[in-house]
Specification:
It contains 7 helices and 9 strands, in the order βββαβαβαααβαβαββ. The chain is an alpha/beta fold. α3 packs across α4, α3 packs parallel to α5 and α5 runs parallel beside α6. Bound molecules: adenosine-5'-diphosphate and magnesium ion.
């Protein structure tokens, strides 16, 4: 039996702002196996991004239990969560969030630099992963000097440079045309399969969702 990357039980999330409160997640039960690629679908406002933030330890559920790689993040202090995010989780969003003053090589190397890896080793590994996403010829370019598809591929390289066991993607093809979207999907799938990483990807792109191992649909704060 494959190990579980994520296990969540009865996760609830309520946003409170003064006297207003909005229950966005109303009891989510979810298991993602190591190496599994799961698509997260559902209408806008259903709570997909909210769930991804919780699974990626960027936010906390209001109640329920969560296990990420066998650990319950609710008992962890921020520095410990930072460490897990840095070492074990990769993030890819609709926008690339590359740092504009750094080359693609420096951007891709950043998670390793933050983890304390030497500049030399970080740059070497960045060059390797950039070549895996087809950017060998662009390593010294600034983000503004490459195309949207290339920016997203560089963001994927940065997300995967630590070879994380979990990759969280929030609308990764949302800013790309169909062809560029399919390109990034294939790269995500290839890298994840190679590293046996679990992937959870929120998307409106039906082709992308259909090529996942499993589709998880959220409707009105619950899994349909
Ligand atoms: N930080 C926040 N504070 C208050 N409400 C929020 C916050 N983030 C999201 N929401 C609300 O939660 C609901 C779900 O949002 P979200 O998780 O972004 O949905 P999705 O990603 O499926 O479109 C929406 O109604 C949104 O307005
Ligand atoms: Mg969203």
């Amino acid at each position: 039996m494959a190990e579980l990357a994520i296990s969540a039980k009865d996760l609830k999330k309520t946003y409170t702002d003064g006297t207003n409160s909005l229950e966005v997640l109303k009891g989510i039960d979810l298991e993602i196996k190591q190496g599994e690629i799961a698509a997260l679908t559902g209408p806008s406002g259903a709570g997909k991004s909210t769930l991804l933030h919780i699974l990626g330890l960027m936010d906390q559920a209001t109640s329920g239990t969560l296990n990420v790689f066998g650990q319950d993040p609710s008992g962890l202090e921020e520095p410990e969560k930072d460490l897990i995010r840095n070492r074990k989780v990769g993030f890819l969003f609709q926008f690339h969030y590359l740092l504009p003053s750094m080359t693609l090589l420096e951007n891709a190397a950043l998670p390793l630099r933050i983890a304390g890896t030497s500049a030399k080793e970080s740059m070497e590994k960045a060059a390797v992963i950039l070549s895996e996403v087809g950017l060998s010829q662009r390593v010294h370019h600034l983000p503004s000097r490459v195309s949207g598809g290339e920016q997203q591929r560089a963001a994927l390289a940065r997300a995967m440079i630590s070879r994380p066991k979990l990759l969280i993607c929030d609308e990764p093809t949302g800013n790309l045309d169909l062809e560029r979207g399919e390109e990034i999907r294939q790269l995500i799938w290839n890298l994840a399969r190679k590293e046996n990483s679990a992937v959870i990807v929120a998307t409106h792109n039906l082709d992308l969702a259909k090529s996942a191992d499993r589709i998880i649909k959220i409707v009105d704060g619950r899994i349909a």
